[in-house]
Amino acid sequence: MTEDVQKHSVHTLVFRSLKRTHDMFVADHAKPVSLDETSHKVKMAAKLRADYSAVLHMPVLKEGKDRPLGSNMHGNQNYLQPGDDPEYLITGTHAYPSGPGVALTADTQIHRNPSEGGVHAMALALPPSQARLDASRTAASVGDIHRHAGGAERSHASHSHAMSLLEGGGTKNSSLVARKAPTMPKPQWHAPWKLFRVISGHLGWVRSIAVEPGNQWFVTGAGDRTIKIWDLASGKLKLSLTGHISTVRGVAVSTRSPYLFSCGEDKQVKCWDLEYNKVIRHYHGHLSAVYDLDLHPTIDVLVTCSRDATARVWDIRSKANVHTLSGHTNTVATVRCQAAEPQIITGSHDSTIRLWDLIAGKTRATLTNHKKSVRALALHPRQYTLASGSADNIKQWTFPDGNFIQNLSGHNAIINAMAVNSDGVLVSGADNGTIHLWDWRTGYNFQRIHAAVQPGSLDSESGIFACMFDHSESRLITAEADKTIKVYKEDDTATEESHPINWKPEILKRKRF
After folding, report:
1. Helix/strand/coil for 5
2. Helices and strands (H and E) in the chain: how many
């Protein structure tokens, strides 16, 4: 039998609630507990014994007086000063150790630290130590590195750039040497690039470009699901290939066989035989859109990367999935291959770059310096270096370990594509349609281009999705969001006098991240 629950009036319930609230907050829990002097002394004594027992007998310089470390630290002046105790003696650290038959006088009985002026005088009189010489030599070599290194992110001169180096020697006097602040070396002059040709024909965004090894024609893939082959000299359409059922995101032409490879958002990777203009192989395995692909320069291997956060290594002939390179945590946007180690480099929307060991199928190194998605990579054709493009910065790295060189700052947009030629011209193309050209060695931005969109297009359709130099490196081809392919060439009439470098030797502010 259930008991009847006692019913209370609303008035009673409200007052009970008020009482509970009052009881809960009557004590101010944020108020510190009052200090108990006895327990605090015990605590401090235990802490001193535990942490400083080895040096409790030694004095410390405190406001001009020697004071034992074990003294009360809270204002109680009930300890003896060293001079107050006639028997006070410091063992083991005395400035004048007592020898046999040597009596301590009133002056030598108490340990006194040498004055600061005396220390300096002693330091100047002594010959330079090997450690000091090594330190000064190291500092100079670091200065040389900073002076001659490629330009990093530049800033205005800091007020505190004057550094002083203290040199002591038997014959040399001490001097304060103002070291010159490191400056950006003068960049190499490059001729400006100008728009040479605009090619229309695609019915969607042009997403990818590849130039064939003979430099006679080039290939583009677009959002209209077609692959088009164009004559490089005239810009005329030679052939259209259909077969993909979604945007074609990557194309590559083999240097070792008459094959063209393509990949797209339909998860398909296709191999086209250019003698018959037909698909002869499919590479199945990716679970989502395939965003980029690249061919290994020396072995018959194809590497693709996808929105499924993996890159896959394929044997071209057998269609076998040799490795699945997993480790990225988001879309892998770009992949590059080279003959030397690391043979595969990937950039991802997880803001990292990974260097891969092709034989083991594992990561050699992960570069985590970028803060935003890495959508573009460019390998220097002659140097053993790499550039990576992101919305925060363009960064340069050395192989094989991925050591950071410098930042190229100023292209404040989402960088979708990059290319570099043998003359050291780095091109970055961005989502807003701007192209920046940089001197590779110094990171100097020598030209900025924003070409007009195709007539009939919206201004918002200004965007660069891919860019590439042809094999002669005299033409720059860009794939754009206004459905055109634009071809640029160097201005033959430009000279260093007519287009001088607008360069000032600014103070370097080197960013190490």
Report:
1. coil
2. 4, 30
CA angle, corner 262, sides to 259 and 266, nearest 5? 145
For the chain, helix, strand, coil in percent to 5 are 15, 35, 50
- Total residue count of the chain as it appears in this document: 513
Residue range 416-469, pLDDT digits in tens: 999 999 999 999 999 999 999 999 999 999 999 998 888 888 877 899 999 999
Report which of 70, 95, 195, 76 is spatially closest to residue 480, judged by C-alpha positions: 195
Residue 314: beta bridge partners?
302, 321
CA dist 55 and 68 (Å) reads 9
Token pair, residue 75, equals 């204002």
Long-range CB contacts (< 8 A, 24+ apart) of 130-136? 132/168, 136/165, 136/167
Q: Name the CATH topology of 193-490.
A: Methylamine Dehydrogenase; Chain H (2.130.10)
Q: What's the Cα-to-Cα distance from 312 to each of 297, 380, 399, 508, rounded to whole Å?
A: 16, 24, 22, 41
Q: Which are the contacts of 431, defined by CB distance < 8 A and separation ≥ 6?
A: 413, 414, 415, 416, 463, 464
- Output the pLDDT for position 225: 97
Beta strands in 174-213 (DSSP E): 193-200, 206-211
- Average pLDDT (246-261) is 96
Region of 433 (left: φ > 0; alpha: ψ -120 to 50; beta: rest) is left
- Contact by Cβ (8 Å): 281, 319: yes
- The residue among 389, 386, 385, 365 whose CA lies nearest residue 375 is 389
More confident residue, 322 or 455: 322
Tell which wins on pLDDT, 100 or 172: 100
Question: Residue type for 347, please?
Answer: G
Domain ranges of the chain: 193-490
Query: Which amino acid is located at 288 in the chain?
Result: S
Strands 301-306 and 310-315: antiparallel
pLDDT exceeds 60 at position 333: yes
